[in-house]
């Protein structure tokens, strides 16, 4: 273990730790061990008998100034709790595949009306992207899924928004009324 002992006018510090006074008896014992060329007991306990490399810097002409705290990024692991979002295992499709998905769409679009793109993440990990008019209904999204993937015709599923997580139960609402323009919709099996 590498430890840096900095000697200041008004005390000493280890690495970038707090100032320790020369007048404290514990600190005096620590420094006496260092003067004798021994590793202080405190550091021996810290490294559990391992090797300690003690470097010293002389700053006795300066007063101790508390160092700024360094940003240390979180290095642990996170756990997602209670999310309705399924884990997507498919690889992202290329823009060409997305365009092909839109071009092969069984949804009739009125070009004189405002339109939106909806991305649908299917329960099997795939995704569909489709253009809809703002006046299309949630039922039209369900029908589009079934037309695109006939295997889901006999499967009971619900449609859910991603943020905030909300089940789209009233399928008679238009996409604009349901406030799901340009969003991602999740298909969840019941």
Automatic annotation (TrEMBL):
GO terms for molecular function: ubiquitin binding. It comes from the Eukaryota. Signal peptide: none annotated. Residues 111-188 form the UBX domain. Keywords: Cytoplasm, Cytoskeleton, Endoplasmic reticulum, Golgi apparatus, Nucleus. InterPro entries: NSFL1C_SEP_dom_sf (IPR036241), SEP_domain (IPR012989), Ubiquitin-like_domsf (IPR029071), UBX_dom (IPR001012). Residues 1-65 form the SEP domain. It is found in: Cytoplasm, Cytoskeleton, Microtubule organizing center, Centrosome; Cytoplasm, Cytosol; Endoplasmic reticulum; Golgi apparatus. GO terms for cellular component: centrosome; cytosol; endoplasmic reticulum; Golgi apparatus; nucleus. GO terms for biological process: autophagosome assembly; Golgi organization; membrane fusion; nuclear membrane reassembly; proteasome-mediated ubiquitin-dependent protein catabolic process. Belongs to the NSFL1C family. This is UBX domain-containing protein 2B. It comes from Podilymbus podiceps (Pied-billed grebe). The lineage of its organism: Eukaryota, Metazoa, Chordata, Craniata, Vertebrata.
């Amino acid at each position: 273990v590498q430890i840096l002992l900095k000697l200041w006018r008004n005390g000493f510090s280890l690495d970038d730790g707090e100032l320790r006074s020369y007048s404290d008896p514990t600190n005096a014992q620590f420094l006496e061990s260092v003067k004798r060329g021994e590793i202080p007991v405190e550091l021996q306990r810290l490294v559990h008998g391992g090797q300690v490399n003690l470097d010293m810097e002389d700053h006795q002409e300066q007063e101790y100034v508390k160092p700024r705290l360094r940003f240390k990024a979180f290095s642990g692991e996170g756990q997602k709790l209670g999310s309705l979002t399924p884990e997507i295992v498919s690889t992202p499709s290329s823009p060409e595949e997305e365009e092909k998905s839109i071009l092969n769409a069984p949804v009739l679009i009125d070009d004189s009306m405002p339109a939106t793109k909806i991305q649908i993440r299917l329960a099997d990990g795939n995704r569909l992207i489709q253009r809809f008019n703002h006046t299309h209904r949630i039922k039209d999204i369900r029908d589009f899924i079934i037309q695109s993937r006939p295997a889901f015709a006999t499967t009971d599923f619900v449609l859910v928004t991603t943020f905030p997580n909300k089940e789209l139960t009233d399928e008679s609402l238009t996409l604009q009324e349901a406030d799901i323009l340009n969003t991602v919709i999740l298909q969840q099996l019941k």
